[in-house]
Amino acid sequence: MKRILRFSLILLFLILCVQPVLAQSNEAQLTAEIKEVLWKHYYEPLPNNFLKQNTVEEVISFLKDPYTRYYTDEEFSDFLLSLEGKYGGVGLEIDIIDNQVVVTNTLPNTPASRVNIQKGDIITHVDNQSLENMDLEQIKKLFSGKAGTYIKIKTYRPRSDTYLSYLLTRENIYIKPIESGILSKNIGYIKVLEFTQEAASEFSRQLNKLQDQGIKGLILDLRDNPGGLIGAALDVSREILPPGLFVKLYYRNQKPELITTVGNTDSSLPLIVLVNKNTASAAEILAGAIQDRNAGIIVGTKTYGKATVQSIIPLVNGGALKFTSGKYLTPNGRQINGIGLNPDIYIPDSHNQIMEAIWMLEHKVHKSLTYQLNHGYYVINGKVKECTVKPFLYNGNFMVPLRSTVESLGGKIKYSSPDNIQISFGQDTIKLGINSKYVFFNGQRRYLPVAPILKNQQTMIPVRSIAQLLGANVEWRPATGQVVISR
Fold it and tell me: What pTM does this model have?
């Protein structure tokens, strides 16, 4: 009996000793596998000292890449669910505003909505961990977790100057990827929350429904869209872009991959795209393609600036590795990683962005000429073009380039000298000169409030006076710094 007991104790001791060895062995094999994948396929070459990292944590940390991470089996399952628009959480939408984590929305019938967490509440702690100095991605990870697990949230409500604490149980949350409706005067509206697996088919269904209701223009809302699947964004582009180049992908040691869209050959529906600082990744790819292809007007603020591509590889030793495998450029070859896309029309306030988009579509700005103060572009017939000289105010007059204004409205210009410029517009002629306030319209002398001036070899004119001589309507929009010329 003693001999059996002694043998059992020895066997138990061996098991206890072997388990850490096996764990160390599995960790070593997993680390080696991850290092091999990254060494061969990471989007940029890695230095030799990368190979000296001894643990998975050290390997991932070495890259300093927020988009590369290792998923356990359970985490990988949750990630796959997120691609379907599902995740374990409490139903909060958040943003960092003035260095504070602010609730921007609570999804209906979710743990957050049931305890009345409100828009505008400031979240200070999650599970007793301060959110100070964390970026948005890190914070969102704290909220995510397996359904049935608990999360403790501390908030501050500025309206009532009160601090509140909540203990919530995470649930499986389903995010409907598309929201749509009809706004004023048959203006269609589609918001893409994220490019999930179902986003493209749902977008097509909602767009067809709006078109059946007779919409005359479309607002595509990509604000706060973190991206998702490039394939889903490509599929959406087929509904609103003409055939052609969609994005340029670059992978290490490979030739550039030019992704094209078969597109809609009848994509004549006037389009305005809303973006903001949280428009990222696949959403930026779509917005960049629309902008480069002159298929719509981008309104809002500068986007996030994530122009890298992630791949996912299941690992032999369990779990999966998500890593940055490539980068992309817009169809015109613009590099926006860490920079972002600049909108065609800069409007910081979210409400004004919607109102501006509605106004532009209602007033058929896509068939007009639009300048924006101190911006190096103009919009004509829905196409964005560069100005060699930015419009500016001079003695209270909005000065714009003469040539682009006249030619965009269908006129012709003939320069004999700086003092002898002739504009032909149908049967009408206008003669003017640099630094002269007098012009001759069909032989009759007229007076300008300020004289045309020369700047960087470009003739700049007071837009209202010249446009009115050409029979065009001019509207000054001080809220956005725009002049809209229509004829």
Answer: 0.69
Domain annotation covers residue 351 = yes
For the record, the structure tokens of 28 come out as 């070593």
pLDDT-flagged residues of the chain (< 50): 2, 4-5, 7-23
Q: Is 121 a catalytic residue?
A: no
Domain tally, the chain: 3
Answer yes or no: is 255 within a domain.
yes
Tell me whether residue 281 is one of the annotated catalytic residues.
yes
> Residue 322: which domain range?
178-355
What CATH number is associated with residue 140? 2.30.42.10
DSSP letter at 148 equals T
Told to judge if 292 belongs to the known catalytic residues of this protein, a careful annotator would answer yes
Q: Which of 281, 368, 404, 408 is catalytic?
A: 281
Shared-domain flag, residues 212 and 343:
yes
End position of a domain, from candidates 174, 191, 226: 174
The rounded distance, in Å, linking the Cα atoms of 302 and 279 is 9
CA atoms within 13 A on the CB side of 59: 24
Q: Which of 384, 388, 394, 368 is nearest to 376 (CA)?
A: 388
Q: What is the pLDDT of residue 17?
A: 40
3-state DSSP call for residue 214? coil
Active-site hit among 78, 221, 224, 292: 292
Of 405, 414, 427, which is closest to residue 486 (Cα–Cα)?
405
Residue 265 confidence (pLDDT): 63
Assess if residue 48 is contained within a domain: no
Catalytic residue (one of 35, 154, 248, 306)? 306
Bridge partners for 392 per DSSP: 399
